[in-house]
Each structure stands twice: as structure tokens, then as C-alpha cells.
């Protein structure tokens, strides 16, 4: 039986461990201590957690001020509110000013499915990857979450970490080492390449297994860093054949858009971008929304199969 884990637990455990040896680390929260899984941090370091209340713009500004004072703030809140409400502060106070702030967008994507489009965070990658100097990371499992947090701390500059609340299986081996800007090749294949990140990586791997049973071998890339993008891996994939991107995000401006920008400039190939197709997602559970938009192993398999057929017809 596959073991599932909440990446927020890895986030919390890693943050507490790092703070125990690095007194610069502080946390700024928007009244989300529980949902951001910060109770252990608050218990251990109560004087190092600033709760500004439901005031996201102020929260990012406070984080920038703390960074200017030599601290390393982890600014945590639901991604839908952290990015949408405070986008100007993220742009000006962090990106433009190169502030050493680590934004932690919690419960991203459609994790808050039943609360509807106001709480879905399906535009955050499009917004944040457009901001200069801001590193954007979407971990796929607890191991990568831990390593991404450590990498973010080591990087002198603003970082946006997009973290889900939905339990996921481990997709990386124990010897995996996350590096900013480097995609992880999880599976080798010669027919096409599937590129995903976050909660979609495990589903993409399942789809690749299904394709194998049909005689189709797919490479699977975990593109956990959306900015800076691993353009070398994308160009290599384009030379191999068609590309399918899979993301828990709108298909406008996110991972698929980033990959397409690289492909069209370097080596145009047929693509299929799976995600939420430029509309508000319906209200319902995350699993319902994934099913609705074909963001399931079966849906990814079917889209991959169709793309290959299109490519074969075009080549004739």
C-alpha cells in the first residue's frame, strides 16, 4: 500500500530544525498558524513568530522589513490570499528590492476545493513567475519539500514556495538531491515526455506506467523549479518528441506556458497542456475537480495517447 504524506509536515519539521541552529529564521503569518502547520514552530520559538492577522499586504511588508534587519523571514499563508492580495508588495518589496524573504504559499491549487474559486489558487504561478528576481519552486513530495526549504534558506534572495495540503506519495528515491533550476528525470522513455510538478507528478508517473502497458514509453520530468526554468531539459525533451505538461494550475501562464515559451523558441514540437483551461474551477473536492479536468492518471494517459496519434498523422 502506498504511503501518503502531507508536505506541510515536512515543511514544519524542516523549519523547526533549521531555526534551532539559525537564529535569523523568523515566521510571519496571516492568522494561519494552524493551516500553515506552524504550531510546532510557535511552541518552540514563540518570540520568533509574528502574526499580523488577516492582512496579507502588511504581512509581506513586515517580512521585507525583517529581512532588511538581517533576519530570514518565512512568510506563510494560503497561497490564494498571499499572492493575489499582496502581489504589489511581492513585486516591489521583494522582487524589485531583492529582499531575502521566503514566501510559503500554503494549500495551493484546488486544495480548498469545497470553498470555491475564491479559495482556489490556480493563478499563483502565472503571477509569481512573471516577477523578476523571484525564484519559484513547487515541490512534489515531502523529501523534495525538505530539500527545497533548505535550498531556499541558502539562497540570498526572494523565493516563492508553493506547498500543497493534499497528501502525496514519495516520488523521489532516498538519494535524490534537489537543485534550484534543475529538473528531476524520474522515468526514461523515447516516445514522448511528460512534464509535471507538485501534486501532479505522482499522477503523471501513474499515467506513464499505464502507457507502458500499451507499448508507449514516456520520459517523466519533475519540473519543480518554475523560475529559473531548466530550459536544457525542455529542449532535450523537444528533440525527443511531443511534450505533455501537467499542472494543478490554469493552463495560461503556468508550467505549460513556460515550457511552451522555451519550445517555440528553440525546437517547436506538438504539445498538450493539461491543467485548468482558462476558467474558474467548479466548487467541489479536489478529487472531483481533478476528475472534471482530466487531471488523473487516466486523463493524462488519454491525452498523451491522443497527442502521439496527432504527431504521427502530421508526420505522414
Gross geometry:
globular
The CATH homologous superfamily of the largest domain: Thiamin diphosphate (ThDP)-binding fold, Pyr/PP domains
Sheet with the most strands, sense and barrel status: 7 strands, mixed
Distance between the amino and carboxyl termini:
44 Å
CATH architecture of the largest domain: 3-Layer(aba) Sandwich
Instruction: Give the strand order, joined by hyphens, for the main sheet.
Output: 3-2-4-5-7-6-12
CATH fold call of the largest domain? Rossmann fold
- State the CATH class of the largest domain: Alpha Beta
- Along the chain, the helix and strand elements come as EHEHEHEHHEHEHEEEEHEEHEHEHH
Task: Describe the fold and architecture.
The protein has 316 residues and is of the alpha/beta class. The chain folds into 2 domains: 4-169, Rossmann fold, CATH 3.40.50.970; 184-315, Rossmann fold (3-Layer(aba) Sandwich). It has 12 helices and 14 strands. The strands form 3 sheets. Strands 3-2-4-5-7-6-12 form a 7-stranded mixed β-sheet, sandwiched between helices. It has a 5-stranded mixed β-sheet with strand order 9-11-10-13-14, sandwiched between helices. The protein has a two-stranded antiparallel sheet with strand order 1-8. α7 links the parallel β6 and β7. α3 runs parallel beside α5 (87-96).
